[in-house]
Fold this protein.
Amino acid sequence: MKRFDTFHPAALLLFYICILLLSMLSMDPVLLLASVCGSISFYCAAAYPRLSARSGLFFCVLFLLVTVTNPLFSHNGVTVLFYLNHQPVTKEAICCGAALGAMLLSVLYWCRTLQIFMTSDKLLYLFGRISPSLGLLLSMCLRFTPVFRRQYQNIHQVQKTLGYGGSDQPLDRIRCHVRSFGILVTWSMEHAIETADSMNGRGYGLGQRTAFSLFCWRLRDTLLTVFCLAATGGILACRAYGALHYYYYPAMTPHIWDAPHVICYSLVWLLMLSPVILEGVETLRWNYCRSAI
Amino acid sequence: MELLQIRHISFTYPEQQTPALQDINLTVRRGEFAVMCGASGCGKTTLLRLCKPAIAPHGTRTGDILYNGLSLDDADPQTKACAIGYVGQNPEQQIVTDKVWHELAFGLENMGLPNDVIRRRVSEMAQFLGIQNWFHKNTDQLSGGQKQLLNLASVMVMQPELLILDEPTSQLDPIGAADFIGTLKKLNRDLGLTILLVEHRLEEVIPAADKVILMENGTVLCCDTPGGLGEYLYTNLPEHPLIDSLPSAMRIYHGLKDLSHADTVPLTVRDGRQYLENALGRQQLPENAPADTGKTPGISDKKAPVLELKNVWYRFELVGGNGSGKTTLLNVMCGIYPAYSGSVSYLGKPLRSYKGTLLYRNNMTMLPQDPQLMFVEDSIREDYEATCRVMGRSREETEQEILHMGELLSIAHLLDRHPYDVSGGELQKAALGKLLLLRPRVIFMDEPTKGLDGHSKKILAGQLRQLTAQDITIVMVTHDIEFAAQYGDLCGMLFDGQIISQSPPEDFFSGNSFYTTAANRIGRRYVPRAITCRQVVEQVTAGMSLEEPI
């Protein structure tokens, strides 16, 4: 059980909206570094026993690719490092590329954790709040996709034992797939009647539906929300006082360490690292509790 | 007090000449467990659906249905939806949403109840029916039995007074079915729930029932206690197909009734044993040679083995419970899944050496659990034609063969129907026909008796016997012990991924003490080698007649 799993979907959604907005707010390297560190460490903590090196490698390559591609197309910047095909390659363009790559990387990693924690039932709950019938429709879609997939596999397998589709000719195989798909459609129409009966039998369409959910709003959801809003508000206020305005061209903005900047950066780091800190504290506490038994 | 009163109900479907129901009169009392049975197409389902207005069929109806003394037509829809619960046949298709907890709440959401009321009712029911362990699962991860239990629970959360069920166990394996019926008994006993159940698996249901309603051709033939129904059938209609589905204790009693009479008809194995003990006392019956069992002669003759499995190991990804690996074994045997190690050989050559579709033409084929999977065309005839084309037959040959198949399996009248419009037993026959067109030498069958009533099983067995007489080997995996005992030539038990024992059914079942037929469990003290009702009756009668002169 992960700590973040237990938050209310609305609190979770708000948290992710703040984080994703801030990650894309500015090209400031300090902010981007915080976002990348926060997202990757959080992902590692969230997916802990099932981390794959291959996907990590893929994201590294993606980052490098963006970093390298930018200076090939953008020749702005004052510090020329060398010439490639008579085109200048500048330090600013490379840094800008790295910043773009970092932004992409952090957003992707935040989304990967989002995928882990925003399970279908939480999404449905959020949609159900907007419109109960839309929520039900989505829930039914989620229900029937695996049913259809399995039925298709079964049909196809049985067709094989009957001597269809197992031959080496591609045309034969395609024909077999088309046939299997055709009967799948018939099958689903046929059985949709039973689903409709089951829905009618339980009083569907008699009046105003409510949307039931297992989630309750607890104190820690309030705390998370307040923290998110306060931190984001603070960061935006600092921005109004001149922080987080960062430019790469023609020359990179020098860092100034005045009050708005220092406050802004500390808030950013605090917010970006908060999920992994929460997760880490929880794991430590759990391990401590278990060892104490 | 009467909860449901059906008064002079007649019903005709649109554009039909003959009425589906004719002047039905029935009463179901509060707290009663009523079981309705009859051949397929006798109007059971129509009658059930008329009792649940939301899903009542369209057509012309005369007569009246009273619920709690008031006409159903006048009751308000909210009450009708809640007070009368309906569970249908197909576990998969009745589930609407993707999560177990959401499915449980679905009906209450429709009633517009607030969140905390729903939460209490859902948790209560989940606890009562033992769902809490899979409460958070996705509905597609459940086994068939769990799905049907979920359907029952999601009706029960609406707190119905009357529960109507239409063959709820026909798609379940016997273990899931027994669990489900056990749950129904518990609901009836502990909550006083009134149950009206259509069922053909009478062995388990009848002992729990207060009332059995036998329907035929749209009329009620008999409505009596279980014992009374047996009495009625054996005296008035000894050839009625339902007799094959009655509990073993009842059938043995009626076979031996002339020798020894009992005051109450035995319904369960326990009652049956007691009855035999009262009849026979301490005497030992002489060991007599088992009567002719009607099995294919010469199975033990040295014939070349068709299929050999050597040290086969298979790995399977466990999907849902219930996995002793029978279905997987079948799939390995017919080459759908490759064996993990070891070899499967067919006619002395390993399966792997049969390339492409060679293995499945003229050699081996499989009847899946759900015969619907086999049909892909718009009519059974078209499907047969397609199969013949695959086999490379000419047009005349095709026609002749289809004609022959229609006669052989007596399905000629069904050939032009859509495969989804025929009943389960008929579809099974049509599927068998399609397999036979491939001229197989080995047929694998996965639970072929699932969803069939006693009479259809008998017909299926007769057809299988014809096939074995033509030197076709049939390998069947089944939970249906009674069927295996009655018609198998060789039985084996698969447990923990191994075949534990393998022998002819008489030896196999008389050696087991739990995993054996109900008839054997009833009679084992006196006639240990008798495994079917007929054998018990015959052997006891023979033994008694030998005893008498002394």
Remarks:
- Residues 153 and 431 of chain B are 34 Å apart (CA to CA).
- The domain at 307-488 of chain B is CATH 3.40.50.300 (Rossmann fold).
- Chain B has two domains: 2-245, 307-488.
- The two ends of chain B are 56 Å apart (CA to CA).
